[in-house]
Structure formats: structure tokens, C-alpha cells
Amino acid sequence: MDKFEIIETLNMITQEKLDIRTITMGISLLDCCDEDPIKAAQKIYDKITTKAANLVKTGEDIEALYGIPIVNKRVSVTPISLVAAASKVSDYVIFAETLDKAAKTLGINFIGGFSALVQKGFLDSDIKLINSLPEALARTERVCASVNAATTKAGINMDALKMLGKVILDTAHLTKDRDAIGCAKLVVFANAPTDNPFMAGAFHGIGEAETVINVGVSGPGVVKCALESLKGAPLQDVAERIKKTAFKITRVGQLVAQEAASRLNTKFGIVDLSLAPTPSIGDSVAHILEEIGVEVCGAHGTTAALMMLNDAVKKGGVMASSSVGGLSGAFIPVSEDLGMINAVQIGALSLDKLEAMTAVCSVGLDMIAIPGDIEPETISGIMADELAIGVVNNKTTATRLIPVPGKKAGDFVEFGGLLGRAPIINISKYSSKDFINRGGRIPAPMHSLKN
Amino acid sequence: MKLVITVIGKDQVGIIAKVSNVLADSNVNILDISQTILHDKFTMLMSVEAPDTGVSINDIKKNLENTGMNMIFQIYHEDIFNYMHKI
């Protein structure tokens, strides 16, 4: 082994915050359906706590073996609207509480899959699940929910977005004593990936194996440090350096994913090549963009720099892993990224610029705090815009919007932990009401004559 | 299995002696030792061969920490370096 290679790796882990962000075990719950909701809930609990019984311990063992931090161990399950469809019950909070209890038993911080897939239309169970969301998110601590409301092939279900605008406000209201934290656990997707290991949008899609291990790597700090020695270099050199760094980061993800799958006697699913920031110093995607050369994230040129960063991460990562999937790109969650928080705070980064940035990166308008007195139709309008970008560009986009009761643009909200803190962002004062109240569906876009 | 052990802190008398003792007690064979300065701190890198079974990495780490030296000990399986730097 080369001493300098060892030192480079040690630097990445000890100084530049390279870590495995999550090992997520996907578990199918399709065999847990039952007419009796209590029996179904019991089957769900038993299956999750059996299949993932050793997840946390295995994660800790691998962490000790390779000396790399594995920050989160999590579980994603089959969208609950499919599992609960057979049960004769109208309120699905019981299933959210079951997932929460299973997460506590396992010692994991989040479990994803309180979800519905409604891009083209609703099952009865989808409606029940969406209506149960505010209560479910308020009454549970670790359950993450998502709704796929659009795909490139089906278009955008505007009825769903209309419902969800109100659901998000209701959720904010029910968790107003905790700064609307419930909304931080709800993602609305276009083209949701079925193998995403990252929360809050993880679920175990149909078409996946019985159980599977998906791993999310991260390392914005490593990329930023790698670029620090390239001041003034032409952009192709910057892209090349990002590619090489992404390769190295992803190799670690591949190693951990293989080891975890083998120890848990499970199939290895995918490595998700994402640059996922955290609110700690030296772990920011915005700071990479600033290292590339924009004065503050949000300045003109930011979208181009982000496009290059996102693309180079994928190019490096794809070669490093036998199977890549999930979201795979740079995340730009405002509250979880020190540089983004700063950029919004000083007025350099607006909602409109963030929206433009999501057209070239993963994943969308993520962890964005908005004023609490917003109209539900305005929330639906923001979601419709974001999902339209995903639908027409054949990519995943999503929103995680948090209307914070009692706060207005410029105020600050503290979520704490990995979710961070955020300034309330300014939104348009003009109404989207008549547009949203039309309801219906925006048809799937053309796939030729692309301009 | 091959491991890399790093010892970071202030240079002092007897580091190698104390670390070697702990490793010998766990039947761990030292293959190579080198020293460097990492972020202004004395850093010793040891490449070692440990038995595949019967030895816990956590136990070795605990025993190293119990030597009473004010140093930071970290242990890494060599695969993390091989994976990252070799295709």
C-alpha cells in the first residue's frame, strides 16, 4: 500500500467529512396485506423487525472494520397505500404508528414508505393515505412519507397537488409547536426512484427484490478540498478533478454496500452517488460552487457550475460501482447546507434561482421554509412548477416545503440535528388559485421535437 | 486480515514499544511502520496482519487506548485503501 494513498484516505475521513450517509434496507411488505388492519399492522411490524433485526449492529461492525463513519442505518418499505389497500379501515395512522414502533425497536432514526403513487390516478387507498398524512406525521417521530404525483410518461396529477397543498398546511398546523417539523418528513415527487436510500423520500418500489441493501455515500467536503488546489484552472480540469474524487468516494460506498449485503444475507441493490450536505462546517454543496468561482451560491453562473458538478459526480461514480441508482446527484437542501442558508439569508439565492438549479441537479426544492400564512393553492403551484421540470426533463424532481406557522419571510426556523436551520424564503404574492382549482391532469409531454 | 493502524498525537518516548506490546498480545504481526506529520500532528502509520478470527478490532483499539498515552488510535481494514485507489 502506498503511504500517500493511505494519507489521502485518512484526510478524507478525518478532515473532510467523508462518510457513508446511509445504509438503507428495502423491505417488501406486499405479503403483509390483511383485511383486518390490526393483523396487517402486526405482520408489518414482525416482518420489518425480523428482516432488519441486525441492520444497526451490522452497520456498526462495518464502521469499526473499515474505520469509516456510517451515519445512518434506515429502512424503506413498500408504499403503504398498496399494503393497506386490502384492510378495511379508512384511517391509516395505525400503519404509520406501526412503522414508527418498528423503527424504535430497531434503533433506526427514519423509516420511509408511508407513501402513495398517484401520478395517473388514485386508488381508494391512496386517498385514504393522503388524508391520513397530517395526523400520521404529527403523531409519529421517525416515519417519512412521500407521494409520487407525476411522471414523464403519465404527466402531472393536479388533483393530487391540490390535495397536497392543503395536507402540507394541515401538517404544519398540527406540528406548529415543533416549527412544522412534520412537513420535513413529506416529499412530493415527479419520477420518484424506487431504490432511493435517502430520506425523506425513500420507499421500496414494486419491481424490487424481497429485501435489498441500498447505500448512499456523501462527501461535499472532500470535493471542495480537492478543488482548493485548482484555483484559476480551466473548467475541464475542475470537472476532471471532481470526477476522480467522486470515483474514490463511490468506491467506498461500493465496498460498504457489498459487505453489508453479504452480512445481512440480502441482495446488494444500488449505490446512490449523491453529494448530500449536512449543516456542519465543511459539508456544503454551496461551498463547492463558490470554490468553482461564483462569489455566493445563487450568483449568475451558479446553474452552470452546478450542472458541471452534478454531471462530473455521475461520470466518476458510475465507473466506481457495479450498480448505480437512487437519486444520484448533488442535493441542494437549503436548511441542511451552511452555504445555502447563508446565500438565502443575504438575499443571493431566491426560490426562483433554486428552481432553476433543480433543472440540472438532484433533487428539487428541498427543505425550504416558506411563510406560514401561505395559501394552499400557492403551495400546490410551487409543487406544480417543480414537478413540471422533472416531467419534461425526464428526471426526478421533488419538493419538501415547510410552511412555518407564525413566521414570515426573513425570519429563521430551527429544526435541529441533520435537518438544520433555515431562513423563511420569499414567495410570490400573486395567486395560483384559479389554476390549481381547475384540477385534473397535465398530460404527458412530447418525447420528440425537443426544443 | 491486513489492517492499518494510525496513532496521532504528541511524539513521546515508548510509543512503538507500548503499541507493539498490545499488538503482540493480540497475536497481531507488524509488517511496516512509517511516520509522518499530518495537520501539524505526529502520525504513525502501521501496517499489520491480524488473525481473521478471534480478534476484535474494537478490543485492539480499547487495549491501545488503555496504554495511557494521550494519543488517538484508529484502525482501518486495508480494503478501504485498496478499493479507493486501485481499479
Task: Tell me what the structure shows.
- The complex is a heterodimer of chains A (451) and B (87).
- Chain A has 451 residues and is an alpha/beta fold.
- In chain A, 43% of the residues lie in helices and 18% in strands.
- Chain A has 15 helices and 13 strands.
- Chain A has helices at 3-14, 37-51, 55-66, 80-83, 93-106, 124-139, 158-174, 220-227, 235-263, 285-292, 302-320, 338-345, 351-358, 376-393, 433-437; strands at 19-27, 70-77, 111-117, 143-151, 155-157, 186-190, 211-218, 267-273, 364-371, 397-404, 412-414, 421-423, 441-442.
- In chain A, strands 1, 2, 3, 4, 5, 6, 7, 8, 9, 10 and 13 form an 11-stranded mixed sheet that branches. A two-stranded antiparallel ribbon of chain A has the order 11-12.
- In chain A, α14 links the parallel β9 (364-371) and β10.
- In chain A, α8 (220-227) runs parallel beside α10.
- The longest helix of chain A is centred in the middle third of the chain and has 29 residues, at 235-263.
- In chain A, 61% of the residues are buried.
- The mean pLDDT of chain A is 95.
- By secondary structure, chain B is α+β, with helices and mostly antiparallel strands.
- Chain B is 31% helix and 39% strand.
- Chain B is built from 3 helices and 4 strands, in the order βαββαβα.
- Chain B has helices at residues 15-25, 57-65, 79-85, and strands at 2-9, 29-38, 41-49, 71-77.
- In chain B, strands 2-3-1-4 form a 4-stranded antiparallel sheet, with helices on both faces.
